[in-house]
Design a protein that fits this description.
This protein has helices spanning 7-36, 42-50, 57-68, 73-82, 90-115, 118-126, 131-160, 163-169, 179-188, 192-226. Helix 3 packs parallel to helix 8 and helix 7 (131-160) runs antiparallel to helix 10. With 227 residues, it is an all-alpha fold. The mean pLDDT is 88. Keywords: Cell membrane, Membrane, Molybdenum, Transmembrane, Transmembrane helix, Transport. It is a multi-pass membrane protein. The chain crosses the membrane at residues 12-35, 47-70, 90-113, 134-156, 196-216.
């Protein structure tokens, strides 16, 4: 097999890592709030958070262009305040990965938080412990296995993102060429060997991620069963 430029792999890993970091922070805050609060319109808010799961990637990409395009409200603000554009850059790819990964992470974290027995938190409150310390020392450690599973899935989803990335970041070799884009354009060019190479790479990453998540869940279930 020929030696290929591995820059699409490094770019995909960088995009997935950065988007997963922000997905982690945002989903943690959202899931914590949604798991402990009841308010009018909660179902609608949750539907909006999970909406990227059911939308076609082209719709997500179109929405991102409307928001972050040269004439989009967020695109104008970012260019005026920070001096950079999102469209046709790797940052656009990271934003696309963030949008498609957030629902997966949110669902995992929300389920993990809802499994935490609120009596442990209430006992701490009666002792005058602050909400931040309760979250840091009780809620987060007890929910960690679900959070970690969500992180792995979000990272894997970020690496595999294609449709929305193509619309907002475009295909610029060496700049916005992630692994999914490399597969598609190699296939379009008739380079089946190159397409197969990248398919094997990204499939291996996906299998490794899912295998690890399943292993971790079984291990956690066994540990809980012993306790």
């Amino acid at each position: 097999m020929m030696a290929y430029d591995l820059s699409p792999l490094w770019l995909s890993l960088r995009v997935a890592a950065i988007s997963t970091l922000f997905v982690f922070l945002v989903s943690l805050a959202l899931a914590r709030f949604m798991s402990r609060r009841e308010f009018f319109g909660k179902s609608l808010v949750e539907a909006l958070i999970l909406l990227p799961l059911v939308l076609p990637p082209t719709v997500i990409g179109f929405g991102l262009i409307v928001l972050f395009g040269v004439n989009g409200p967020l695109g104008i603000l970012l260019e005026q305040w920070f001096g950079f554009r999102v469209v046709f850059t790797w940052i656009g790819a990271a934003i696309a990965s963030f949008v498609v990964s957030l629902p997966l992470m949110y669902q995992s974290v929300l389920a993990a938080f809802e499994k935490v027995d609120p009596r442990w938190e209430n006992v701490a409150r009666t002792m005058g412990v602050s909400e931040w310390r309760i979250f840091r020392t009780i809620t987060f450690p007890l929910a960690w296995s679900g959070i970690l599973a969500g992180l792995i899935l979000a990272f894997a989803r970020g690496i595999g993102e294609f449709g929305a990335t193509l619309m907002i970041a475009g295909y610029i070799p060496g700049v916005t060429e992630t692994v999914p884009l490399a597969i598609y354009f190699a296939y379009e060019a008739g380079d089946m060997e190159k397409s197969l190479f990248w398919v094997l790479i990204i499939s291996s990453l996906g299998v490794a991620a899912i295998t690890w998540v399943n292993y971790w869940r079984r291990k956690t279930a066994m540990r809980i069963g012993r306790e």
